Each structure stands twice: as structure tokens, then as C-alpha cells.
Amino acid sequence: MSDQYLAAPVPADESARVEEASAAAPGRRNPLRGAAGRNLGLVIALVLVCAVGVATAGERFASVDNLMTILRLAAVLGVVSVGMTFVITAGGIDLSVGSVIGLSSVWASTLATQAMAQDFHWVVIVFTALAVGLGAGLVNGVLIAYGRVVAFIATLAMMVAARGLAEVIANRQTQVVRVPAFLDAFRQDVLGVPVLVWIFAVVAVVGWVLLNRTTFGRRTIAVGGNPEAARLAGINVKRHTMYLYALSGLTAGIGGVMFLGRTTAGSSTNGLYYELDAIAAVVVGGTLLAGGRGSIVGTVLGVLIFTTLTNVFTQNNLSISAQAIFRGVIIVAAVLLQQRLAERSRSRAT
Question: How many angstroms separate the CA atoms of 137 and 142, rounded?
Fold first, then answer.
């Protein structure tokens, strides 16, 4: 081969293309981009919140008892937020989870349910709450997937109806759980950690595996990214949507059981505003409101950030109104950041 061909200069545009492709190669990709970078940012934010707590409240915040209090309070919201992550990843929304928590806790604490639990086993209370949550989720899923009702409207209707039904069943009264075996099971500590926290950990791990290591998770992301493309790829979008809302209702039912274990009482006010807190935690955790991307790890970190922040506010005697303002600012900031990152991703793609 002639030396002139070996020494032929590479066009500038071709050289730039090769360099760009080389920079984008998996081996040279910036490890802080993508999910790892987002999660690292959330960890830093959590550490900063904890630092503020230590600086302002001292030992009251840094004590082991307070840490367990934070985790115990985060457990119920965390379980509900895992289910919400799947729904939002698929491009949906579920405004009913808070009311379903209240309904499932009331239904599971009725005198009839407690009498059956006394006669058979305290697991009857658990099954009742899970069945109520799953049933409410299935109703949402059928209305949205097959009835073609907008998710916002369908879950809003369930939010109102479930809270109203809980008030009717409880006659606007608080129903105290008087099954000692149930209370003992949910109030005990395992290896020094409350059972409620272990339940949250198990649900989070199962949710992570389901979203990241199964066909169900890949279908959820596909439906959220482009429902029509998912349908053309052979995914039964309607059936999958129904399953997602059933899953969200199931996690709300689990939350209802945990509420009973933590407060020993079923009330129509249980889970009030939890739907907003769950959506906020999921969005702050990096799941796109538009769908197509979700993170269970991010959701867990988002829940811990919000719960720890609430604890810091409480330790410093900050009013509930001020806490609500701070939460609103955080949610808006997270959404604006999501939009900016999405625009940057689209500009890189083009």
C-alpha cells in the first residue's frame, strides 16, 4: 500500500465524530451521569439535612431513639411510595392511596374483623386490609384501562369515595384494635429494628427487583415511554395498566396494616394527604412525571429526605404551615430540575 494512503489526513468532521463516539463509549462514560449521579445527589441532600438537624437540635436529633422514630414514620409512606413509583413510571398518577389507607385500616379494625381474628388468627386483619387495598386498586385500574377514564379523574373519585366509605363504616369514630397478638407482632423489634421498618425494607427490595430485573418492570418503563410503541411491540397495555393500579392499591393496603400496627386504631383520617407526600417523594427521587423512567432507590431516598426534614422541623418547633411551604418549594424545585435534565437529554439526542 502506498505511503500517501497511510498518511492521508482524516477529515475534521470525521475526527470529531470518532472522538464523540469514543467519549460516549461504555468504558469511558461518566459514572456520575444517569441514575448513579441522581442517587448520589439525593444521598448528599440527605446528609445535608441530617447535618442541619445535628447543628440545630444536637443530641435530640442524633439519638438512636430519634433515628428509629424517623424510620418508623418513613415506613408507611415508603411502602405506599414504592407502589406510586410504578404508576408514575408508566405515565399515570394515583391520588387515592391516602384514602385507601384509611379505608383499609377502618375495614380491618371493625368489630366483625377483630372477632374473626380472635377466633382464628390475627392474620385475618392483615388479609382484610390487603384485600380492600387490592380491590380499590383494581377498580381504579379497570376504570382507567378499560373505561378510558383519565387517571387523574378516576383516582380523584376513588380518593373521595374511599374516604367517605371509611367514615360510614366507622361512623366517624376511631376503632381501637384489641387483638393482642396483632399488636405484639407489629410492635416488636427484630435485631433492634422495628418490624414496620423491616416491612418497608422488604417491599423496597421486592419493588427494586420487580422494576429492574423482571419483564414486568421493562413493560412498565415501555408503557410510560411510549404506550403506542409498547402496544405495537406486543404488550397488552390495558391489562398492564390495570395491574399497576392494583399494585398501588395493594401497597396502600399494606400501609393500612402498618398504620394499625403503629397507632393501634383504624380511622377514616388515617393516611390523610399521604398521596401528596408519596408523589412528592417519588418525583424528588428522580422518577419522571411524564413516565418512562423510575427509580426505587431514588424513591426510598426521597422518602427519607422528606421524613428527616419533617423531623428536623419538629425538633425546632417549626409550624406545620411553614413545613408545608418548604415541602412545596422542594417539590417545585425537583420538577424544574427534571424538566431541565429532560431538555438536555433531548438536545443531546438530536
Answer: 9
Residue tagged 410492635 (cell numbers) = 187
| Grid coordinates given for 67 | 433515628
Closest to 279 measured CA to CA, from 295, 299, 297, 253: 299
The pTM of the full predicted model, rounded to 2 decimals, is: 0.86
Enter the CATH code of domain 70-349: 1.10.3470
Grid cell in block for residue 203: 417491599
Euclidean distance between CA atoms 237 and 73, whole angstroms: 35
For residue 166, which of 122, 113, 247, 101 has the smallest C-alpha distance?
A: 101
The residue type of 67 is: L
Distance (Å, rounded) from C-alpha 113 to C-alpha 194? 25
Q: Where are the chain's structural domains?
A: 70-349
Could you read off the pLDDT of 93-144 as tens digits, one per residue? 999 999 999 999 999 999 999 999 998 999 999 999 999 999 999 999 999 9
Dump pLDDT digits (tens) for 185-199: 998 888 889 999 999
β-sheet bridge partners, residue 193: 190
